[in-house]
Amino acid sequence: MQAYYVIKAAQEREELQREGDILDGRIQTAEREVRGLEATLAKLNLVNNDMGKSFRHGIFSELATTSHMVTFEAFAPHLWQDRLPV
After folding, report:
1. For residue 76, is it left (φ>0), alpha (ψ between -120 and 50) or beta?
2. What's the rounded Cα separation, in Å, for the pair 24 and 42?
3. Higher pLDDT, 11 or 74
4. How far is C-alpha 80 from the geometric centre of its chain's CA atoms?
5. pTM score, two decimals?
6. Secondary structure tally for the chain: helices H, strands E
């Protein structure tokens, strides 16, 4: 009878080891995905910052120097109807 319990414990330990290996694989996959997403986010943030700088220093400064500059109020008056002039 003792041999039965030893074999049963060994089988349970082996099954738990397999389940642990499967979970470990899933964790490693998820960690790789997180690192990839973090790298993608970092790149998007850099591009976003560069785009913001180009808009602030490029397009908007060019618009400010032209005689055909359109104000936001003139472009979309319905958005400004209830606002007090600044």
Report:
1. beta
2. 27
3. 11
4. 33
5. 0.54
6. 3, 0
